[in-house]
């Protein structure tokens, strides 16, 4: 009787855990003979300026926590290289689209207009960017150039063991200016754009972590 109860409890526990996977912090690339990896600054082919550093940093921090994976200082001293390519829609208006408008006169008062007629400014921005990540063993300069092209998307072979794109999309409210000149509207919102790009970089790192968890 005890044996039957024990087996029944064990079966219940097993079924309850179905669909869940224990997150391992061991090197996910070891099965491919990769024990060291070099992460150069990501290539920025997007419409956003100076964003390579923040995305490279977040992906680096994702991999630095994996046991038995050494992040080396150069590609010649590593088993593989992780290449990151930042991309966005061709048009800037598609990379950052503004929705919703407000009247300058109604929002800031007539003094903000000076001698101009009333006009409208956006209230909400939506930004789009994608990050393509490739793990390749001992790449040549020509291979790196090829991977940055459209033909390089999704390419896989014995050297390329990971090649995936992460689409990122985030919206945010633009800052309200109380009594300040609307001429500084763009400057005031630059900080908001940078903060949201940092949040997108963290989102990319989380997506990458989940990808390698279930892919390897």
Distance between the termini: 42 Å
How many strands, what sense, and barrel or not for the largest sheet? Answer: 7 strands, mixed
On the 0-100 scale, what is the average pLDDT?
81
Shape call: elongated
How many helices does DSSP assign? 6
Number of strands: 7
Helix content: 25-40%
Q: N-to-C SSE series?
A: HEEHEEHEHEHEH
DSSP strand content: 25-35%
Structural class: alpha/beta
Instruction: Give start-end ranges of low-pLDDT stretches.
Output: 2-23
Structural Rg: 24 Å
Explain this structure.
This protein is elongated. The chain starts with a helix and ends with a helix. It is built from six helices and seven strands; from the N terminus they run H-E-E-H-E-E-H-E-H-E-H-E-H. Strands 1, 2, 3, 4, 5, 6 and 7 form a seven-stranded mixed sheet that branches. The longest helix is centred in the C-terminal third of the chain and has 31 residues, at 185-215. The protein is of the alpha/beta class.
Short description:
With 216 residues, the protein is an alpha/beta fold. It has helices spanning 2-16, 52-64, 92-95, 104-108, 141-147, 185-215, and strands spanning 36-38, 43-45, 70-72, 80-87, 96-103, 120-136, 160-173. It is built from six helices and seven strands, in the order αββαββαβαβαβα.
Q: Key terms for this structure?
A:
single chain, 216 residues, alpha/beta, 6 helices, 7 strands, elongated
What's the structural blueprint in terms of helices and strands?
Blueprint: H1 2-16, E1 36-38, E2 43-45, H2 52-64, E3 70-72, E4 80-87, H3 92-95, E5 96-103, H4 104-108, E6 120-136, H5 141-147, E7 160-173, H6 185-215
Parallel strand pairs: 1-3, 1-4, 2-4
Antiparallel strand pairs: 4-6, 5-6, 6-7
Helix pairs in contact: 2-6
